[in-house]
Design a protein that fits this description.
Elements: E1 6-11, E2 32-33, E3 37-38, H1 40-49, E4 54-58, H2 64-70, E5 84-87, H3 103-108, H4 111-115, E6 121-126, E7 129-131, H5 135-145, E8 149-155, E9 165-169, E10 175-180, E11 189-198, H6 199-210, H7 219-229, E12 234-238, E13 243-245, H8 249-258, E14 286-287, E15 292-294, E16 297-298, E17 303-304, E18 307-309, E19 312-313, E20 318-319, E21 324-326, E22 329-330, E23 335-336, E24 341-343, E25 345-347, E26 352-353, E27 358-359, E28 368-370, E29 375-376
Parallel strand pairs: 1-4, 1-6, 4-5, 8-12, 14-17, 15-18, 16-19, 17-20, 18-21, 19-22, 20-23, 21-24, 22-25, 23-26, 24-27, 25-28, 26-29
Antiparallel strand pairs: 2-3, 6-11, 7-13, 8-11, 9-10, 9-11
Organism: Anaerovorax odorimutans
Protein name: Glucose-1-phosphate adenylyltransferase
Function: Involved in the biosynthesis of ADP-glucose, a building block required for the elongation reactions to produce glycogen. Catalyzes the reaction between ATP and alpha-D-glucose 1-phosphate (G1P) to produce pyrophosphate and ADP-Glc.
Amino acid sequence: MRKQECVAMLLAGGQGSRLGALTRNIAKPAVAFGGKYRIIDFSLSNCTNSNIHTVGVLTQYKPLLLNSYIGTGAAWDLDDAYGGVFVLPPYATEAGGQWYQGTADAIFQNVDFIDSYDPQYVLVISGDHLYKMDYSLMLDFHKQTGADLTISVMEVAWEDAGRFGILTADRDGRISKFAEKPSCPDSNLASMGIYVFNWNVLKEALIKDSFDTQSDHDFGKNVIPMLLGEGKKLYAYTFTGYWQDVGTIDSYYNTNMELLDPDSQFNIFEEDMRIFSNSNIYPPHYIGHGAAVENSLICNGSRVLGDVKSSILSFDVSIEEGASVADSILLPGASVKKGAQVFRSIVGENSTVAANSVLGNRKGREITVIGDNELAGNRQKGGAHE
């Protein structure tokens, strides 16, 4: 294999249990987002837009959909003859085999893959965050500072700081302190879970960590504090763009709905830093006679014969005559039958809302969630909550 300056390792094995029914059958990075995309599209597209063309995707939890979706990586221009995208699940060895035990262990189990490209730098990213970022700028900062490890950071609200890895840095960005989810944070500079390592430094640290039986084999809990304690040069790279971890139903719903706001900071229509996906195999969408669509995203393959307002329809969605959908997200293949009404709901992939039924509550703030391949909406019109 040809030597690469930088290899990206994309952690995509997370279950995302707080998303409930949406991740019952698929990993969080595979969850559909914004109609056209899946969450992993953003990290893969960032690699392409940053001219990083060798990407290892570390899968684990229910990986079938994710594996088939990534394919050869051609949709993201990652089918490079001298690099490419590689799906890297846990595997058995002569000593046995086991699941990845943590973020650091996932990289450790793939040391041979990284070594085969003999990189100088390794970029570690997550497949379940929504953001646009040019990693090459972070890599340039890493080189300029002579860092052993550079951590991408953002300022967060002080009340949220306890949810993140929090670090303290001087005016030049040199990190002096790091604490994983501290109960009493003394800084609001939060790690985004995006790292650039010198490969020789990372490899040595992973080997040391693998022998520590008390370790959680996690970057935030173990590897970063180890490097800091050894006096390695750790620097903070401040990111000022849009970044969101859609770890809950509320954040997933609200981030989707932001796409309908023309003034939203999260703009998927920008020509630069385009987001690519593997969902371009469907015919054009169809809006039928008498249908009404307002302030919505309607994706390819969808057929709309009813009314849609302030909603996101993923590809291959069907809205039949007399049906109405408002303030909702319909994932790929979802169907709303004749006369049904859907309010403030997330309808899972290939699920059906029964004819003449009501799903959700138009007056409440609660979000109704239906998982994949389900029949929902048995409450008929005229019910107390309509």
